[in-house]
Amino acid sequence: MTRTRARNLDDDAIAEMVSILDGWTGKLSWELLIDAIVRRTHARYTRQALHNHERIRHAFSQRKKALAEARGERGPSADSPELQAALERIARLEAENQRLEAENQRLLGQFACWAYNAHTRGLDLAFLSRPLPAVNRDQTRRQLVAVKESER
After folding, report:
1. Dist CA 79 CA 102 (whole Å)
2. Which of 17, 40, 90, 116 is most buried by its number of CB atoms within 10 A?
């Protein structure tokens, strides 16, 4: 039996996998995460493929640490299914909030590093704040047409 290759991980797929980790309860391992991803997306990725993406790797390690810290604590139990669903939603949102705060701190650290490196190279705020050059796709099309016409 041949296996079809899963699609490349883009930002949407990474966000979905991080979302799976945000709501994770119980034991967490790479194998269990891969199985959950297969159930949700019908695509199988290797541990190495997931580990290569920084957002997934950090979300995994942060969730694993949070689960280890919460192992000794018992969460509140609910008598009604609605209350239980609300408690699960609150726990998921708190986990997502913790992950986003950690991701924000990493990005702020990266920005500080870039700002320092820009300063040591003599780049000022005016230079760094310049807008990106406009993309003129029509010009590219005209160039392609001119090249094709010249080849005839």
Report:
1. 34
2. 17
Is the separation of the CB atoms in 15 and 8 below 8 Å? no
0.90 exceeded by the pTM? no
Sort residue 26 into left (φ over 0), alpha (ψ -120 to 50) or beta.
Answer: left
Cα atoms in the Cβ-side hemisphere of radius 13 Å centred on 144? 5
**What was the pLDDT predicted at 73?**
66
Q: Dig out the tokens for 60 from the structure.
A: 């995994």
Q: Identify residue 101 by its one-letter amino acid code.
A: E
* Length of the chain, in residues: 152
The mean pLDDT values, 10 residues at a time, for the chain of 152 residues are 76 92 91 94 91 93 88 70 89 90 93 92 90 78 72 71
Tokens representing 97 are 């909030």
Q: Which amino acid is at 102?
A: A
Pairwise CA distance, residues 65 & 102, whole Å: 13
Q: Which amino acid is at 106?
A: R
CB 60 within 8 A of CB 19: no
Q: Where are the alpha helices (DSSP H) in the chain?
A: 11-22, 30-41, 47-51, 54-70, 81-120, 125-128, 137-151
Structure tokens at 26: 């119980």
